[in-house]
Amino acid sequence: MFREIYYAVLEFLRTFGALQLFFLRLLQHSPSILFRRFGLVVKQVHNAGALSIVIIMVCGLFVGGVLGLQGYSNLARFNAEDSVGTFAAFALIKELGPVITALLFAGRAGTALASEIGLMKATDQLSAMEMMAVNPMRRILVPRFLGGVISMPLLAAVFSTIGLFGAHLVGVNLLGVDVGAFWQQIQQTLDMADIYEGVVKSVVFGVVASLLAVWEGYNAIPTAEGVGRATTRTVVITAIAVLFFDFLITAIVL
Amino acid sequence: MQQTRAVELGTGLFVLLGIGALFFLTTQTTGGNDFSASETVEVEARFENVGSLKRRAPVSMAGVTIGRIVTVEFDPATLEAVVVFIIDSKYDQIPDDSDASILTAGLLGSQYIALQPGGSETFLENGSEIMFTQSAIVLENLIGKYLFNRESGSDDE
After folding, report:
1. Dihedral of CA A243/A249/A250/A251: which sign?
2. For an interface test with B, which of A44, A173, A183, A190 has the most B Cβ atoms less than 10 Å from its Cβ?
3. What is the pLDDT, as a whole number, of residue B32?
4. Is B99 helix (H, G, I), strand (E, B) or coil?
5. E strand or H helix at A90
């Protein structure tokens, strides 16, 4: 019993340490790839970011709309319906924007990365590259990692902005909050620091989500089942990690 | 080659969109001058104290929004706040002796200007100034006054 727990803890620590080393190796190769093989990164920004834009925008619109509805119905009790804009802006920019974008990103782009890399491994493409003296780390992993890291903050910003317009659509156009009061109160209460917090969060989540997707794909068991399991684990672990870091950053910032 | 061009184009668009969104968020460019009247009349009013009145706040009459505040400035000569606001020019029969007061929407709401109609035969036009104004009610002063009155009231007994 104790022996099993001991080995489980040991195994967890080993995986965790290996992940850190893997992360450092990614970082070590990042600058040279970013400057010398920028084309590879652009292609991955397209895969991870540009192709995710539709789902991000649609979800942002609905989340903003829900915030508008909920905010309105609750704030109406205090006759403070005008604050619905502030409510939505705070929720979107500081929390929901980065977090939901990261979760959607894990589902849309993270799984694609993990299964792509896992399948490359299962079909021995990575080994073949090594045989040709091409470092798969530089050629495959780093561009995908960088593509995710670059895309996430941009996606989160788009999400928050579209969300604000969703809240505007519901609050102002549907429920009749005064449009001047809506935007004026947002401007009055929102600080540069709030937006900064959202950007920091989305960058951190971008690193976490991309790292875990690449890691899971690279360490997938090279079978059909293994690739499937790696894809699932990517989403689960990313979700947990993102929510944990969200708590951590919020606690630090406050 | 075509394939790469499409990828690059899509990526470029995406990055531009993202940066545009960031820019929007940081500057908070408001799409907000919804109060869309093609013709407006600009009116000025001077207040002793405007409280937390901000530009773009609504101007209302009988509870209906008829205009918007353009600027709130301090006049160092008279030591008063000068508020300039625009009113939709289709409301061209507002008496020029109407009075303007700064009210708060609800308990926590934002402040706005409410116009009370006067009885004059001449109407507000571009550049007119509202003579009768009532400052924003500062809650602290109100509470202070109330406490002070109670104090003196109990002394009388």
Report:
1. positive
2. A183
3. 41
4. strand
5. helix A84-90
Structural domain of A232? 23-253
Say how many Å lie between the first and final Cα of chain A, rounded. 42
Cα distance between residue A57 and residue A156, in whole Å: 10
* Chain A contact set for B105 (CB, 8 A): 79, 82, 181
Check A79 against B21: CB less than 8 A apart: no
Inter-chain CB pairs, A–B, below 8 Å: 121
In the predicted structure, residue B139 carries a pLDDT above the cut 80: no
Query: What is the secondary structure of A113-174 as a DSSP string?
Result: HHHHHHHHHHTTHHHHHHHTT--HIIIIIHHHHHHHHHHHHHHHHHHHHHHHHHHHIIIIII
Q: What pLDDT is stored for residue B30 in this prediction?
A: 42
B25: confidence class by pLDDT, cuts 50, 70, 90: confident
Instruction: Please give the structure tokens belonging to residue B28.
Output: 């908070």
Under 8 Å between Cβ of A98 and A156? yes
CB contact under 8 Å between B8 and A42, yes or no, is yes
Domain residue ranges of chain B, discontinuous segments joined by + = 1-29, 40-138
Q: Which two tokens stand for residue A97?
A: 């924007």
A190–B28 C-beta distance less than 8 A? yes
Total count of domains within chain A: 1
CA–CA separation, B112 and B101 (whole Å): 8
Mean pLDDT on A220-232: 92
- Decide if A3 is inside a domain: no
* Residue A158 to residue B107, Cβ atoms within 8 A: no
Q: Does A125 touch chain B (CB under 8 A)?
A: no
In a domain, A18, yes or no: no
* Average pLDDT, rounded, for chain A: 91
- Does A28 fall in a domain? yes
CA dist., res. A149 & res. A143, Å (int): 10
Determine, for residues A42 and B7 on separate chains, whether the beta-carbon distance falls below 8 Å.
Answer: yes
Cross-strand pairs, B40? B88
Ranges A4-13, A47-56, A84-93, A183-192: which has the least confidence: A183-192
A29 within some domain: yes
Locus of tokens 């004026």: A184
Touching check for A169 and chain B: CB below 8 Å?
Answer: no
